[in-house]
Write a structure and sequence with these properties.
globular; TIM Barrel; binds flavin mononucleotide; about 475 residues; two-stranded antiparallel sheet; 13 strands; alpha/beta; eight-stranded parallel barrel
Length: about 475
């Protein structure tokens, strides 16, 4: 079935009938109550920080902008984005991926937190409302490190299907000693984040980056691979180190709940699995790599909650090798493929896995993702999700770039501004893949008028010709 654009599903009946036709299930509230479930505070309990009270159920998801200074310090573009999130009305802000060492940047303009840049982070932190709970995502990009623009991978293991895309081989596999050093780098950055005033840091374990890849290091010899204890040693060591060095800081986890085989464009441009048959590299998936299996996912969440974590940001897959799973979109990014399914199926898949986790681990506050594709129906689904306990927070990714005030409008009982609704054009992904800054070029007036808009249009044209 050809995907139908959500903006054309102009009544609740049409939306629900379309979902039904797809066999995709998600909760739905017929009417959105500005004083209802989305407006309720939520207490997060963390062994270090104690209780953190989030004033409502909207969370801004981490989204890097490829626009920091070359030393990793925040720029005006970063400050503008964070200010908009500060003014958004969302109770929780989960701020963007920040590299713990320069070599771990995913691009030359990713934020880096160290002594030289720390002051800029304290200034960023000051852009938020006093009631907002604000965290910073700490990362090492691992396989997808591009600190100077070209791939400089640091991998967890040799990967037969992903190494070629980044030119990785045996010599790029990090040693146990190098991983020990990176544990220390994460802990050091967490201390700086705490000093800058962040409520929590997140140890990033998603999207194919280092912390995520280690979770599927089944065949890696040594301390950081093999059984689940080995594959989670890095995560657990970072958490233990932060608890020691910054005891008051809360810790969150952003986890790809499930993964899948890599996808590539087929002859018709539509995404198809690159691998048929057994696939041993997908955390949270069956041995075929095609079905979700949350058994180890639950075990990891259980493990981190025993370490006193009370906050989980759910996501899935990777934007590099299965973007339709990670950020369902009608228009794929330029280096992607046409969606192999109606993107609503991808939304339902993420919401379903998130609900399974939220119900199994009621002591953990779970932030959901993948809502942007719901467009006009986002508040209706979000309210029903929170009411049913299928997640504690409705996370906003791309929608927060085009329409950061959506939480304030919903909680204020105002109608949505349709012209600001993200239609998933994927320019926020295509631009950085072309070496440009990320932002909402189709909708946000600032980026619409930005000189890089012209470069983006040229890059897209060039890529279309090459395709
Ligand atoms: C431009 C862009 C940058 C992103 N950067 C990050 C990031 O720094 N860390 C992260 O965990 N996820 C990142 N994501 C993923 C989002 O947090 C989110 O999971 C995804 O966009 C799906 O949510 P949505 O449907 O609301 O967009 C990024 C997404 C986009 C579009």
């Amino acid at each position: 079935m050809r995907p139908v654009q959500v903006k054309n599903l102009s009544s609740a009946e049409a939306f629900l009938a379309h979902l039904n036709g797809l066999g995709a299930k998600m909760p739905f509230s017929a009417a959105v109550d500005p004083l209802g479930a989305l407006a309720q505070p939520k207490v997060i309990t963390d062994a270090g920080a104690g209780h953190l009270v989030v004033p409502n159920r909207f969370a801004i998801l981490p989204m890097e902008g490829w626009d920091a200074a070359s030393d990793g310090a925040p720029t005006d573009l970063v400050r503008r984005r964070w200010q908009r999130f500060g003014d958004s009305g969302a109770g929780l802000v989960w701020a963007e991926a920040t590299a713990v060492v320069p070599a771990g940047r995913a691009n030359p303009n990713q934020l880096v937190l160290n002594e030289q840049t720390a002051e800029g982070f304290a200034e960023l932190r000051s852009l938020f409302a006093s009631t907002q709970i604000v965290g910073l995502q700490l990362t090492h990009s691992g396989r997808y490190a591009r600190p100077l623009g070209q791939a400089e991978p640091h991998t967890a293991y040799v990967h037969p299907h992903l190494d070629d895309a980044v030119g990785a081989s045996e010599r790029h596999v990090l040693s146990d000693n190098q991983l020990d050093e990176l544990v220390a780098s994460f802990v050091h950055a967490a201390v700086l984040a705490s000093q800058a005033g962040f409520h929590f840091v997140d140890v990033k374990a998603c999207h194919g980056y280092l912390g995520h890849e280690l979770l599927s290091a089944y065949d890696r010899p040594g301390r950081y691979g093999g059984d689940l204890a080995g594959r989670t040693l890095f995560l657990r060591s970072v958490i233990a180190g932060i608890r020691d060095a910054a005891p008051q800081l809360a810790i969150g986890l952003r986890l790809s709940l499930f993964d899948t085989v890599p996808y590539v464009a087929g002859d018709d441009g539509i995404g198809q699995p690159r691998v048929q048959g057994p696939y041993r590299f997908a955390f949270g998936a069956s041995p075929s790599g095609l079905e979700i299996d949350l058994d180890e996912t639950h075990q990891v969440i259980e493990m981190v909650s025993r370490l006193g974590l009370g906050l989980l940001s759910a996501t899935a897959g990777s934007p590099y090798y299965c973007p339709h799973v990670q950020r369902p979109a009608f228009f794929p990014p330029s280096d992607g493929y046409k969606p192999p399914e109606d993107p609503l199926v991808g939304v339902a898949r993420q919401l379903g896995a998130t609900a399974a986790v939220a119900h199994r681990h009621p002591g953990v506050a779970v932030v959901g993702a993948g809502y942007s594709y719901l467009q006009e129906w986002l508040p209706h689904v979000g309210q029903a999700v929170v009411e049913g306990g299928d997640a504690s927070f409705v996370g906003l990714g791309r929608m927060a770039l085009s329409y950061p005030n959506l939480p304030a409008d919903i909680l204020g009982g105002r109608p949505l501004e349709r012209r600001l609704i993200c239609r998933t054009f994927s320019d926020c992904t295509t631009a950085p893949r072309s070496g440009l800054i990320s932002g909402c070029f189709p909708i946000d007036q600032f980026y619409k008028q930005h000189p890089q808009r012209v470069e983006l249009a040229a890059a897209k044209k060039h890529m279309r010709r090459g395709a």
